Amino acid sequence: MYGTVINEGANKGILVTTADFGPDAYEFTKGKPLTLLNGANLSALLEKHGHRARIDLREARQVLAQTE
């Protein structure tokens, strides 16, 4: 993603996951125009803006399995 942000001249890249990122991902983004948004922060952001949501990893895995 970092390469795409730079190559396309974007101001920032935002990577969203329903789970979390590993320590290496957080370390890699330091000083780069990248933001990592994990599941907990995603839920909080949605709630802040009046949206109720839940993250069901079991359901997400089932949907992913159907696309493979």
UniProtKB/TrEMBL annotation:
One Pfam family cited in the UniProt record for this chain = Mrr_cat
Q: Where is the Restriction endonuclease type IV Mrr domain?
A: 2-46
* InterPro entries membership: Restrct_endonuc-II-like, Restrct_endonuc_IV_Mrr, tRNA_endonuc-like_dom_sf
Which BP terms does GO give this entry? DNA restriction-modification system
Query: One GO molecular-function annotation for this sequence?
Result: endonuclease activity
Name of this protein? Restriction endonuclease type IV Mrr domain-containing protein
